[in-house]
Each structure stands twice: as C-alpha cells, then as structure tokens.
TrEMBL record:
Region listing for Disordered, in residue ranges: 1-79
CHAT domain mapped to chain residues: 621-909
Signal sequence residues: none
Highest taxon of source: Eukaryota
Protein name: CHAT domain-containing protein
InterPro entries reported for this sequence: CHAT_dom (IPR024983), TPR-like_helical_dom_sf (IPR011990), TPR_rpt (IPR019734)
Composition bias, Basic and acidic residues: 11-29
Cross-referenced Pfam families: CHAT, TPR_12
SMART domains assigned to the protein according to its UniProt record, in alphabetical order: TPR (SM00028)
Amino acid sequence: MASAGTLAGIDIKESKPTEDKLPAPEKKNATKRSNSFSRRKKKDGTAGGDEPALSGGGTGAEVVLSEPSCKSEMQGDPLQESLQREAEELYQAGEFDEAGEKFYFLAESYNHAGDTAREIGALQNMGACLSKMQQFDKAIQFYQHCLALADVIDNQQKQGEVLESLGWTNYQLGDNERALYWMELACKLYDSIDQQEGRVNAHYFLGKLLAEFGNWQKGIEHMEVSQGLVESDSKTYARVKGDIGFSYVQVGERERGLQMLNETLELAADLKDNVRLIAVHEYLAEAYKVTQEFDEVETHFRHVISIAHEENDSFVEGRTCMDLGGLQFHCKSAFSEAVTSYTRALELAEEIGDEVARGDCLTRIGEVHLAEGCIEEAEADLRKATDVWRTFGDEMSTQLVQRRKVYKVTMCDDIDRVQFFDDHADTYAVLVRTLLASGQPDKSIVGALLAAEEGRAATIRELLAMGPTALPDHAVEDVDVEETSPEIQHAALPLADEELMTLASRIFPDKEGAIVYYMLLDEPVSGAGMQEPNAKRSCVAWVLTSGGTMQSFKTDVSSKDGRSLDELVRDLHIKMAVTAHSQPTRGDPRPDESIQQYREHLAGVGASVPAEGEVDVDLELQALSDMLLLPLVGMLTSGAPICIVAHAELHLVPFCALPLPGGKPLGIAHALSYAPSLTALQLLLEREAAAKQFSSSSVLVVGNPEAALRLELKLPDLPYSAEEAQLVGDCVGAQPEEVLTGAAAKLSSVLEMMHKPLRAIHISAHSCAKWIALAADEQDSPLLQDSAEASSKDEAMLLNDQLHLLWLKAHPTVVLSGSRCAYGEVSEDWMLGLPRTFLITGARSVLASLWDVHDEASCRLMGAFYAALRDNPEIAQAEALRAAMEVVREDGKGKWRHPWYWASFTLTGISKGI
C-alpha cells in the first residue's frame, strides 16, 4: 500500500476504502475503453449500447482524465540522459515493453544513488508503459510505490500526479470505489496547496466520475469548482460547462441544463471545436430521448454524423450511425431508414477493420429484416454475424493455450471469452427468433435449438473439451500456438442435429428420460419508444426424449399478479433469505438491516411475513410452475428422469420445488439433474466414462472446519456438519486421514489432497457463492496473532482463483453442502461460481445449494443421499438426490416440509454411483 504517513496533512489510513468482506466476483469488469465503435444494446433497445459517457468528447479519443504518459525529465549524468532518450523514443514508437525495461533500469540506478525524486519519475514512466499495455494491476503497484516515495520526501507535486494516475488506472479496471478514493485525495491535496492546474484536473475528473456512477449532484459540485478556475480558457470552459449542463438534465433541472448545453454549442461553434460540438450534440440527443422527442434526437445524431464525416472520424460516424439506426427502428418504426443507417455503419466497420462492429451491425440489420418479415434476409445476416463471433472464439482459444504455456499453468478459466459471448448473446437470440418465425419444422424446431446451442456456454464447453494444457519443459517468454495444436483440435464444436436426436437416449439408456432445454427471449417492441424492462419477454423450451422425439413450446413469462420472471425469482430468494435468518445455517449471516429491508419489500408487494420462522413461497412456486412446467407436462413420462438445461435467471429457479398438477413437487416426482448446455452434457457423458476407467479409491471429506473467518464474521459452530462428515466418510469408505474436520480441515491440507486422484470430494462448511471457509494454518490463525488486523483471512478461504489452477485428474463427484455454493453471477456461460469452476477443473458432477441451508436438515439430506449411493452403486446420483429430498421433506411429521429445508440443492452432471 502507499505510505503509512500523511499526504499534505491528509490521513490516508483513515480515508482508505475498506476492503470488501468477500472477494471480488469472478466475472471481471471490462476496461472502460474499447477499440470498436459498437456499443452493447440497451434495455430500451435504442442505440447500440452505453449512455453517452461523460468523456468530455464524443470521438472516443478523449477520456475523462489524461492517460498517464511518458514524462521527460532532466537526468543526473550523460549516461542516464542517453538512457532516458532511448526509453522515450521506444515509448513514442509504441515499444512499451522495451521502454519500460529502460525506465525500470533508471529507477534502480536512482534508488542506489539515493535520488528519490528522479526514481519516482522513472517509476511513473514505467507505470505509463504498463498502462499502455493494459497491464493496469501492475501499473497500480508501481504508482502506489511512487506514492509512498513521494510521501517520504514530501514532494506534493509528485503526490498529486501519482494520485491522478491511480484514479485513472483504477477507473480503467472498473474499480469505481478506488478511482473515487484516489481522486478525492488528489482534490484535497491540490486544495490544500492551492495548485490551480491540479485543482482543475482533479475536481473535473472526480466530478465526472461521480456523475458517471450516478451521483450527479455531487459531480456537479466538483465540476463547478473546476469551471470557476478556467473561465479565461474558453476551450476548457466549454468542455466543463457542457458536462455540467448534461448533469443538470440528469438531476431534473432540465431547462437549466438545456440552456447550458445550447450555450456551449454556440461557444464550441465559435471556437470551431468539433470535438466539443460532437459531445454536446450527443448530450442533447440523450436529453431529448428521455422526453421521447425523437425528431430532435435524430437531428442531433445527424449533426454528429456530419461533423464526424467532415473530420474523417469513421469511429464516431460509425457509432452514431448505429445509434441512429436504433432510434429509427425501435422508436420510430422506420425500418428502411434503420437499414440504411446500419448499412452505413457496416461499411465504415469494414473500412476500418472493426470486426466487432461488423458483427453487431449485421445483427442489427438482421433484427430489422426480421421485424419486416424478411426471414431469409434476416437469417443470412445473422449467420454472417455468428461467423464473426466464431472466428473471435477460435482466436481466443488459441490465445488461452498460449497464455497457459507462457505462464506455465495447466489450467485456468477464460473470463474474457465469457464476457465476449455475453456481450454478443443477442445475435443468437435474434437468430433463434428468426428461425422460430420461419414456419419450417426443420428450422423452427431443430434449427432454432442448434442456434441456441451455439451461443450457449461457449466457453465452458471449450474448457471441458480442452482439459489441461501440456506445458513446455522450460520457461518461455512467448509461444506460438497453431490452431491445429492438440488442445485446439480437441476443442468442442456445438452438437450437430443428428447428435441432438440421440443425446437423450445416451443419457438415459435404460429409462424414458427427457432433456428440457430452456431459452429466454427478449423481443423488442418497435415504435414503443423507451421500452419497459422485460416487455414482450418469452420462454422457449425444447423437450428431447430418449425415444428420439423432439417437441417445443413458446410462452410469455409473466404471472397472473403481474410480476415478471425476474421479480418472481427475486421475491422467492428474498423469502428464502428471511426464512433462513433465524435458523442455524452454514453461511455468512445476512445483516439484520438487510433482512428488515427484505421484510419491508415483501410487505410492499402484499406478502404475509411472520415475525420469525418460515415464509410462505407457494405463490412464487406456483407462478413459476405455470410459466415453465405446465406447458410441457404432457411431453414428459410420469416419474422419468429429467435433465434441465436452464438459461439466464432460470439458473436461480429451484425446479425441484415447482408443483406439478396435483401439487407434488417436480423434484419429488422426477429425478432432476442439470447441465450448462447440450454440448457440455455430451462432454460430461464422456467424462463419466473416463472416471470409471481411472477407478480411484481415494476421497476427500471435509466437515465443520475451525474457520479463521469466524472471528470476523461471527460464524457459529456447525455440529451437524461434523456429524455429516463422519456419515459421508463411512458411506464412501474413507480412510481416517481422508476425513478432515475442525482444525485439521486447513486450506493447505485440502488443496494438497485435491492434487491427488480422488473419486469424491465432499465439503460441509460455512460458505457462500464466492468462498468456502476452512481452517487456517497455525501461523495464519487470528487466535495466535496479537492484532486482528494482521490476520489473513484469505489463508483460510477456498476461492475460485485457487481452484482454477487445479486439475482433478480422476474426475470426482464434488458435493458442496454449505450455503449458496450454486449461486453466482448469471451468464450465457452458465452460472459463474464454484460449480462451474469445479467442472472446468475436472469434476464429473457437482452438487451444491442455491440458498442458505439448514445445518441439521442438510446433514440428514446428505446422509440419505450417500446411503442410497452406498446401497446401490449403479443408482443415478439424481435419483439418490430425489430420494434424499423426499426423506427430508417427510421427516419428523413435516417439520422440514417447507422447500427451504430440502429444495436448495442442484446436481449438475449425469453421474451414477460414487
């Protein structure tokens, strides 16, 4: 961290943002800049993506704060002066890695000479090189070291420069809290020393950050400080005034904001400042869009296009043509005009080689053709778009293998690829809608399913097929990986149509089972202006039976009481959280204030909530059943096993608790399992066969660890978790050293055992979606440390980042019987969380929970689950789970009949035995 001292009298210890109680989510924030003019589609369907960023300019070349850059400084001797010039020349030539090495050498030489000021300058330049290479985490480390050095020598100018660099770099990483923190410090520093240029920049950037993150009023206050300091600089004054005007529109002072924007427009025209003209026209377009004055919006878009064309700025022209096309299609139902605008954007994308924008333009054109009823044209455009995304996916797979070999790791996830396919999932959704509308059975049923499958779980299927990467014998700096290398050759293509028809029979060879494949579709309402969230939302499902039949249905997703699918799922989980609050659970207890907010929310929607105990969830479960189950009941064989391929927020639906006609829960009447996609299901079937060939006898059972987290999170002891570990150990024939409980259940011991070939891993502990609390090694235990601040809770937490580096070579079944382990971030690539990670690292099946689980009830459920597997080694795990849930549901005169006790657990995979 920076210094433990102060910056110009500002205590940075007190101001430092607190660390999150939990680790950062697995899904990474994308950096703020993009080399494509395409924007992601908004919920209202307009434009191509984001709100106009408060970037101070519409060209995309101007950002909210100057990017850290290479600074020239006088050096101490001729040799150092020569080295500085060489580094600067390399930097200007774009050779940032080589330039950084020379700057680092300069920093070391100044460190040895005791010249701290020049050492800081060299390290700042090193940080600028890393920023240019988008290695922002490393750049931050250098800047923090610079800050500590500047504090030591009390160089306030350097302190300010570094604080601004830290603000910019954290902003690029998407770490909003820290970006704000560093800029607040910069403002305080510059205010305290009355450094005008620094005050202008720092207050302006902080104001724009606050506005971008939704705190418009506070943002205005800081930008007005900056405005008051630059009245003599007309160009800068116009920039700040325009941003303030747009912010006033956002806080409801519309007339004041529009007046400022129009005054800025006149000033920018007088200055012939086309960058500012573009920015203000974009702001005005957004302001008029809010009031649905779409002709005004179009006028300002056309001004931007004209100016950008005059400036030969294809980036801005292409982006605004996409925005204009979205306006014409979604808000004005002007289909032919929309095609014209999108086609112009497509031409520009092809001219500048912007393949991402090309794919998005093709998607948008296809969507308009679909609305016009031109099915063949729509399909042709959308197929071209999927070809673009497929090419990107292939390149990313090659790059992943290359990164693994360079960094010498056999396994790792590819979150950038996940984000990419999440960003472009709408292409596959529009293609599915197009094929469903074709009216041709081979297209509307089979073809639509194949299109859905290609876009679904594209990264996890690749990782499942790829497995571990063979590493070179020695460390290398770079590795060329051909697309024909073994890892890429084994990458997974989506299943073909003939494979689809036989998959269910291969999954359920002895029973009349079925695969139910869901897809949620958002269908925009053209001409409706600002579309309401979830308007025209529908669900498509395909049912593939082991008898070789395929049927499908499509239905709207809204309940009789008017709640959307999102709202039903939200309210269901809120009710489960309130039910869990007064119970002994295996997880981080939710704060009382959160539970009170939940209660107030439920009261607001008319729900009856008792003071304590179980909250009724029948309304939500019945509504979800009406949407998702009733249309397909006639397609299912009574009592037959079902494998569900869910989608989006359907991953959060406890299908086992949904009532069938007559009231019996689906998960009691049918054995349920889940899969990320059909292709992933096929790969898990292959993994099942590989696990049998390995025939490992070793297991790992963990129960009731003495978690180091307990001191901080006040986690209670779990007596039934310890009992569960013994029950499970007995059922699977575990050796004494394979059952780790209490203080023996250390993170280091668990990870060490996971490197061995195991047929089963069972962990019963406090947990949530992001971590599992284990015991700390003695030297890391808070009980043995003088200061609670010195404890390292990360040393007792099993996290995704640790698991990603493993390869579970014997393909074990993994059971996580703590709280919320099946919860995670919803993605097109399945749920981003612990089960996904275990599958990637080699597991054949994963059993985990959606919400906080009851300690004793979970113990009973797991005991019954493993007893069934012990008594019948060939029983399907899904059937063993079904029987175990029924045991708990009927236990003790119905004391655990509420779904909260038994319906949380979901099984991914189609394994038999243990």
